[in-house]
């Protein structure tokens, strides 16, 4: 009755969902449940069967649900954090009886990828190495503002055939407790570590999301040998007191945020005016030294139109103008999403708790539009890196499971 072409697939792969043997011209509900460390996330759609008693999510438009247009991956794009909310009257069908169900597995990483843990000389991180001797074009995922190790981007880029590396910056064993105690030299040493690998080619790109984008852009001023840089909603400069590090042992000079400009919405802060103000006050001393970046380094920028943290339009425009003045090659996407444009089919996050300042920060973005453009943006990243780092060798298909068995408490999302 219920059909899914691949019950075992990589996170970025599309799957085809359909049903047959149904009553003609009746409404049926499809519901997707995602088991994660944050609980169960849900999405649903209500679709009317055709004259053959069939439904195909590739071609059929929902009558109602968490998405509204024909979209084969609409259920994945609109997962909601609704553990305690029942759909109630919105779940309209002729019967509440469960007709059929299938369990799906979405893999963060291709099974042939080897994860190599690094812990030496004060450096910590994870290498994702494709099979074979290499050399492979490489993508380094710069560390996020929490300072902790995040593997998601690196795992997905590696599944496309790239050698990838990700690493923590602080608040992990063996590292400083706070961001202000991190020196840029630590980040440069991580780049040199990757360059020393026998299976790394001379084509290395940096990828940074949010504050990690600022780090990636700043590192480009120190590493003229880089082949490409991608920044997704990266602020155009460092800022005090929560977004700066050291260089040559001294705190990087930067402007201070005026938190009085934050706007609270039901306990969640919108900070667009805060960042517009701080970047209007930038001077030569508090700006990234764009002129120090080799003109051979191309940039890809992504700026969100519904960002509650930055003003995506002005931030993206400013960075583009800095790089235009210095003669760099730039491509930029302005997208209708919130701040956290991350990876395909990652559930949208409207806000998050910042433990360092103990405040809920708003990210913005409408669920379906944001999630839809996460897919488009990711495809743009791959196209950009293939152009400037080279096309990696395609990984062989793996032996896919044909039946997924759920085990209680052992199926949460993990990497």
Fold and architecture overview:
The protein is α/β, with parallel strands linked by helices and 415 residues long. It has two domains: 2-106, Immunoglobulin-like, CATH 2.60.40.2240; 108-389, Alpha/Beta hydrolase fold, catalytic domain (Rossmann fold). It has seven helices and 24 strands. An eight-stranded mixed β-sheet has the order 9-10-12-11-13-14-21-22, with helices on both faces. A three-stranded antiparallel β-sheet has the order 1-3-6, with no helix packed on it. The chain is globular. Residues 84-93 have low confidence and may be disordered.
Short account of what is shown:
This protein is an alpha/beta fold.
Shape: globular
Lateral arrangement of strands in the main beta sheet: 9-10-12-11-13-14-21-22
- Overall mean pLDDT score? 91
CATH-derived architecture of the largest domain: 3-Layer(aba) Sandwich
CATH superfamily of the largest domain: Alpha/Beta hydrolase fold, catalytic domain
Approximate strand percentage: 25-35%
- Name of the top-level CATH class of the largest domain: Alpha Beta
Separation of the first and last Cα atoms: 32 Å
- Spans of at least 5 consecutive residues with low confidence: 84-93
- Compute the number of strand runs: 24
Q: And the CATH topology of the largest domain?
A: Rossmann fold
Largest sheet: 8 strands, mixed
Structural class: alpha/beta
Radius of gyration: 23 Å
- Counting DSSP H or I runs of 4 or more residues, the number of helices is 7
């Amino acid at each position: 009755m219920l059909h899914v072409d691949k019950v075992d697939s990589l996170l970025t792969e599309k799957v085809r969902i359909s049903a047959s043997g149904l009553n003609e011209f009746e409404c049926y509900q499809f519901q997707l449940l995602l088991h994660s460390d944050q609980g169960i996330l849900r999405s649903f759609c209500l679709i009317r069967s055709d004259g053959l008693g069939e439904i195909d999510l590739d071609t059929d438009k929902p009558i109602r649900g968490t998405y509204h247009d024909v979209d084969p991956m609409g259920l994945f794009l609109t997962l909601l954090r609704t553990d305690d909310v029942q759909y109630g009257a919105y779940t309209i069908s002729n019967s509440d009886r469960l007709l059929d169900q299938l369990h799906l597995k979405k893999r963060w990483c291709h099974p042939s990828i080897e994860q190599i843990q690094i812990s030496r000389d004060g450096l910590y991180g994870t290498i994702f190495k494709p099979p074979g001797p290499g050399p492979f074009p490489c993508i380094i995922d710069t560390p996020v503002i929490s300072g902790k190790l995040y593997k998601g981007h690196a795992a997905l880029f590696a599944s496309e055939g790239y050698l990838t590396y990700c690493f923590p910056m602080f608040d992990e064993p063996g590292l400083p407790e706070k961001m202000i105690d991190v020196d840029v030299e630590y980040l440069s040493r991580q780049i040199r570590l990757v360059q020393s690998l026998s299976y790394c080619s001379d084509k290395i790109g940096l990828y940074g999301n949010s504050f990690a984008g600022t780090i990636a852009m700043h590192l480009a001023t120190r590493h003229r040998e880089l082949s490409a840089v991608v920044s997704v909603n990266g602020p155009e400069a460092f800022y005090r007191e929560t977004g700066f590090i050291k260089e040559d042992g001294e705190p990087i000079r930067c402007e201070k945020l005026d938190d009085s400009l934050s706007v609270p919405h039901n306990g969640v802060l919108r900070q667009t005016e805060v960042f517009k103000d701080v970047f209007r006050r930038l001077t030569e001393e508090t700006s990234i030294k764009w002129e120090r970046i080799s003109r051979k380094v191309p940039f890809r920028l992504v700026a969100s139109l519904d960002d509650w943290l930055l003003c995506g339009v002005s931030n993206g425009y400013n960075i583009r103008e800095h790089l235009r003045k210095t003669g760099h090659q730039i491509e930029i996407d302005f997208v209708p999403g919130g701040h956290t444009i991350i990876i395909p089919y990652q559930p949208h996050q409207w806000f998050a708790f910042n433990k360092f300042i103990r405040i809920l920060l708003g990210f913005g973005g409408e669920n379906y539009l944001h999630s839809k453009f996460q897919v488009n943006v990711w495809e743009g990243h791959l196209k950009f890196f293939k152009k400037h780092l080279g096309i990696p060798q395609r990984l062989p298909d793996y032996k896919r499971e044909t039946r997924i068995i759920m085990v209680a408490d052992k199926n949460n999302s993990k990497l």
